């Protein structure tokens, strides 16, 4: 079986849901989740500069993260497990500013998200997971920031029932103390 790259633009302009190239035969399979020529043929210029993986336990929530300086576009794919992945438009002046979209990314469905610059990104881990990030900018700790996972102005509908309820969340101290969308708008827009 061969599944070619598929590119689906999302309602939040600049973001894409991407199905990677996937080939299987009697030996097993091969997944190609990035090819510069394929991406450029769809008008996507993703200048790959850094690759890393997160390994997370069921119930972990990674809030809406972004870099305040040296914006970091990312190509995100769940290698194994299941995450509910969320992107938030944080572009000043955007008609969809503060709007979000959520997606089930699993090792089985192989779907990827292209998260543009000036977007927040986070996820809730439904099953123990490994998530791949292919970034167009390196990580700069001094610009690392985010917005609370439960910000009332964004209103993300996290599927907490899939982890047994909010009382089962695993959240870092950093993510407990992130800013609100209102604070982001006041200081950075």
Q: Could you name the CATH class?
A: Mainly Beta
**Quaternary structure of the protein:** single chain
In the CATH hierarchy, the third-tier topology is known as Jelly Rolls
SSE topology string: EEEEEHEEEEEEEHH
Report the major sheet: 9 strands, antiparallel
In CATH terms, the superfamily is: Jelly Rolls
Output mean pLDDT: 96
Number of domains: 1
Number of helices: 3
- Globally, the shape reads globular
Rg over alpha carbons: 16 Å
Give a short overview.
The protein is mainly β and 189 residues long. It has helices at 36-41, 173-176, 181-188; strands at residues 2-3, 6-9, 16-19, 21-25, 28-32, 50-56, 61-67, 74-89, 100-106, 112-115, 119-135, 144-147.
What features would you describe in this structure?
This protein has 189 residues and is mainly beta. It has helices at residues 36-41, 173-176, 181-188, and strands at 2-3, 6-9, 16-19, 21-25, 28-32, 50-56, 61-67, 74-89, 100-106, 112-115, 119-135, 144-147. The radius of gyration is 16 Å and the shape is globular. The chain starts with a strand and ends with a helix. It has one domain (2-188): Sandwich (Jelly Rolls), CATH 2.60.120. Strands 2, 3, 6, 7, 8, 9, 10, 11 and 12 form a nine-stranded antiparallel sheet that branches. The chain has a three-stranded antiparallel sheet with strand order 1-4-5, with no helix packed on it. Strand 2 (6-9) and strand 3 (16-19) form a beta hairpin. The model has no long low-confidence stretch (mean pLDDT 96). The longest helix has 8 residues, at 181-188.
């Amino acid at each position: 079986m061969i599944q070619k790259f598929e590119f689906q633009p999302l309602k939040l302009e600049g973001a894409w849901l991407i199905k990677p190239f996937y080939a299987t035969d009697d030996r097993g399979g091969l997944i190609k989740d990035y090819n510069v020529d394929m991406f450029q043929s769809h008008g996507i210029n993703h200048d790959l500069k850094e690759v890393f993986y997160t390994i997370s336990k069921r119930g972990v929530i990674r809030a809406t993260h972004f870099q305040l300086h040296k914006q970091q576009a990312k190509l995100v794919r769940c290698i194994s497990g299941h995450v509910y992945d969320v992107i938030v438009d944080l572009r000043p002046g955007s008609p969809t500013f503060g709007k979000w979209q959520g997606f089930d990314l699993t090792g089985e469905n192989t779907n990827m998200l292209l998260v543009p610059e000036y977007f927040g990104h986070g996820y809730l881990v439904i099953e123990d997971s490994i998530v791949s990030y292919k970034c167009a900018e390196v990580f700069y700790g001094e610009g690392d920031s985010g917005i609370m996972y439960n910000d009332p102005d964004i209103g993300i509908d996290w599927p907490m029932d899939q982890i047994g309820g909010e009382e089962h969340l695993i959240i870092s101290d950093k993510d407990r103390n992130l800013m609100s969308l209102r604070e982001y708008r006041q200081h950075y827009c």
